[in-house]
């Protein structure tokens, strides 16, 4: 299990998976109900918490012997807004056979992975809550040698976004969206005023320079990103990018 690949027979032990789904759904729903009661939306919150617990329990997502307990508690409480967004991403990906849900990259990893699925830009992954979509980019995950770098990217970059949601809770969504809009607007003004390449300039201000993304790219030892505008990207020592 050096690559965290579960034994094939694990996928057929449905009674144990069902039991974990029921227990995680029940507890997750209860925790989320308590949070929702405090802010006046107990039923929607409980529904999201229960659904996350049921899906993640069925998929054996949480590593109960490691940080899984903390991940589950945060997903069901402080990080519930992001968890709910992840549920919507799950619902959008589930009906699509081409989404490529990966049991091997989800099993006890504290996040769920789709090799394809919905993403906002070709070749880029999209992470909402504990769901990582479009994780493979243009890489074939079934080719272990070719996908080794991309698997590390998931662990070091996208998995960090999952934990950012847990640690910062709603402040993560507010901060990320606020930076996207505010810095993106500045990027538009700078691109027009200084006659710089528009898309690259705006994307660098709005996305690459976002503190949450800067943190994740640096954690993946890939800074500055090749797509970022060199004149406006944050200054930091370059790291070797592992393909």
* Beta strand count: 3
- Rg, Å, rounded: 19 Å
- SSE class: mainly alpha
The helix fraction, in percent, is: 40-55%
Assembly type of the chains comes to: single chain
Characterize the biggest β-sheet.
3 strands, mixed
The average pLDDT score comes to 91
β-strand percent reads under 5%
Unreliably modeled segments? 1-5, 238-243
Any overview of this molecule?
By secondary structure, the protein is mainly α. It has a domain at 8-168. The chain has eight helices and three strands. A three-stranded mixed sheet has the order 1-3-2. α5 crosses α6 (170-194) and α6 packs antiparallel against α7. The protein is globular.
Quick synopsis:
This protein has 243 residues and is mainly alpha-helical.
